[in-house]
């Protein structure tokens, strides 16, 4: 049973491109974490350290910012969607093969979702839309 509370998280999520922002945030985190994370296994320190550390940080931070802007300013979805697509593709040569390709995929999916989102109301589940031909008859 859906809640009738228009002030809850579900209402907030449905009124903005939530999935797009989530994919953008994930892509930024996926790109940043391996570049700056190190861990120890049996006295052996494992660290992915590359010369592209600054570009990785910059691209990841911009993707995280794009995701947050998509959530809190839905009217900027075109800007953030295009930025996410461009940053995801630029990340391939610039930051650890785009976060081991997974970060680039998340950025491209998030950008595509942001560009395709509309504010149009969807009918509740179980209610079918009438065709224009049926209304004209």
Verbal overview:
The protein is mainly α and 137 residues long. It has one domain (16-118). It has 7 helices and 2 strands, in the order ααββααααα. The protein has helices spanning 9-14, 18-36, 53-72, 77-94, 96-100, 102-116, 132-136; strands at residues 38-41, 44-47. Strands 1-2 form a two-stranded antiparallel sheet. β1 (38-41) and β2 (44-47) form a beta hairpin. α2 (18-36) packs antiparallel against α3 (53-72), α2 (18-36) packs parallel to α4 (77-94) and α4 (77-94) packs antiparallel against α6 (102-116). The radius of gyration is 20 Å and the shape is elongated.
Overall average residue pLDDT: 83
Low-confidence stretches: none
Beta-strand percentage? 5-15%
Number of domains: 1
Could you give the count of β-strands? 2
**Approximately how much helix is present in the residues?**
55-70%
What topology, given as strand order, has the largest sheet? 1-2
Our Rg estimate from Cα atoms comes to 20 Å
Sheet/helix structural class: mainly alpha
């Amino acid at each position: 049973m859906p809640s009738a509370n228009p002030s809850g998280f579900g209402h907030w999520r449905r009124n903005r491109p939530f999935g797009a922002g989530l994919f953008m945030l994930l892509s930024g985190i996926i790109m940043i974490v391996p570049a700056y994370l190190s861990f120890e296994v049996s006295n052996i320190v494992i660290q992915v350290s590359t010369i592209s550390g600054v570009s990785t940080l910059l691209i990841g931070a911009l993707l995280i910012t794009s995701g947050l802007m998509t959530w809190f300013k839905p009217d900027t979805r075109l800007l953030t969607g295009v930025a996410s697509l461009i940053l995801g593709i630029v990340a391939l040569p610039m930051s650890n093969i785009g976060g081991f390709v997974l970060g680039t995929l998340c950025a491209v999916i998030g950008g595509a979702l942001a560009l395709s989102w509309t504010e149009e109301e969807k009918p509740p589940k179980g209610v079918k839309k009438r065709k224009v031909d049926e209304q004209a008859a």
